[in-house]
Structures are given as structure tokens and as C-alpha cells.
Amino acid sequence: MPISWALLLLPILSTTTVLGARRGSQSNFRIINGTPISISDAPWQVSIQVLGYHICGGSILSSKIIITAAHCVFYVPALLLQVRAGSKYWKDGGQLIDVAQVKRHANYGTDPTKNDIALLRLSQRLYFTRNIDRIRLAKQTPESGEKASVSGWGQKKENATVGSRDLHMASLRIIDRKSCQASNYAKLRKIVTEGMICAESGDRDACQGDSGGPLVVDNQLVGIVSWGIGCARKGHPGVYTDIAYYRKWIFKYVRRQE
Length: 258
Ligand code: 4AZ
Description:
Elements: H1 3-23, E1 35-36, E2 45-50, E3 53-62, E4 65-68, E5 81-85, E6 95-104, E7 118-122, E8 136-137, E9 147-152, E10 168-175, H2 177-181, H3 184-187, E11 196-200, E12 214-217, E13 220-227, E14 238-242, H4 247-257
Parallel strand pairs: 8-13
Antiparallel strand pairs: 1-10, 2-3, 2-5, 3-4, 4-7, 5-6, 6-7, 9-10, 9-12, 10-11, 11-14, 12-13, 13-14
Bound molecules: 4-(aminomethyl)benzoic acid.
Residues 6, 10, 205-208, 210-211, 225, 227-228, 231, 238 line the site of 4-(aminomethyl)benzoic acid (4AZ).
């Protein structure tokens, strides 16, 4: 399926994914080749949920603002969305809070890989603990070769049908935009535009269900899991929304809400 369709269908696919997990047939799926972590290792990580099921990851910017991918919340009204913070399990624990408002990037739409960024305003404040905290935004786009980590409740295998019950993290390396474009994405005519950065590391990657979640360098948010062709395929890096590129857009909205 073309990636653009896949991205549009993501909320639906992810919901079925997690329904599968609840049936308990396969309980071990996660980020590709990551390791289980405590929520205190990534206290900014949240699970974004529709009708009680995990659809995407997100990160805490402030006690009332979550940042995620626009494709995660494209067709979803705020009243169906909730956020779970402070638990390594998407299904239990921590704080579960309703979403009051969704702010997608105004230029998100026709191409679901572009401007893939959204903010959620919560109906109540999160109470910060050692398991729930904000993450700072990177001021600069990370350099090629820098070590980064990605976390989430997504699939362990590209063709898996279920997400992970518990939170996983994988270490990656940043690839600059031009090298990323020169990968198989050039042959496939996938455009890695300004506002995107890439990361990969052999057999480790983000996958479906990790979308919207954090890519972190030195405890700063540098990216949002956005798209890719498959998961952990050689020459097909994971593509992330570049936080530094959208910093002004983010702060315009965050200031207005605080
Ligand atoms: C997805 O479908 C997706 N390997 C997210 C990340 C990547 C691929 C697919 C990166 O949401």
C-alpha cells in the first residue's frame, strides 16, 4: 500500500493492532529490536488513545500540552482522544486525561508526510512526578551521526499484527536530510523535505504504533516519529518531523495556551 494511504489509515490500523494484543495471542511486540524501559527513563512519553486503545505516541511539552504527529489525529475529534502519562503500560496506571483541543499544523493534509506535527491541549493539568515530566525542545537540528533514542508501544516486527504491552526504546544514529534522501527513498521517489530528519541503526527502528512518539538526543526532543517504508529495512531510514524546524510554530501555540 502506498505510504500515504498507510499513514491516513494509521489510526484505524493501530486500533485493530491493539485489539489483537488484548486478545493475548501475542504479547511481546514493540519497537523493532529495542529494550524494555521504565517510564522514569522517558517520563515525557505518553500513549495517545481513542476509545481506550493506544493509537500513537506523544511527548509532554508542558502540564497541558502534548506534541505528536498530525497523521495520528487527522480524522479524530478531540472528544474521542485521551492521553495516558506516567505508565510503562499503555493500558494501565499513571494518569489518563481527556484531550480538550487538537491543533494540527495548518499545512498538513494533501501529503501526509509533510508538516506532520500536532499539539493536543489537555482538559486538566498533568501532575509532574518522577514518572511524568516535560521534555525540552531542541534548538538545532541534530547533526548526522549523533546518537538518538526512540521509544514507544509500536510493533516489534514490520508485519506484526499487534503492538507492545510495555514501553520499549531503541538507540539510533541521526542521518542528515540529504543522505536520507539519497537512500532508497530517491529511487522510490519519496521526498525527504526540509522539516524532516532521519535516523537508523542496523536492525533497530520505529514502526507502526510508535508514530507521534519522541526521538531524543541528550534529553531534548529532536524529532517526532512520522514515516518510513517498512520498519528496519536496510537503506530505508525512519523519517521524523524535525522539531528545531518547527520550533517557532510550536512556541506560538504553546504560549497562547499557557
Ligand atoms: C508507521 O506506519 C510507521 N520505520 C512509523 C515509522 C516508521 C515506519 C512506519 C519508520 O506509522
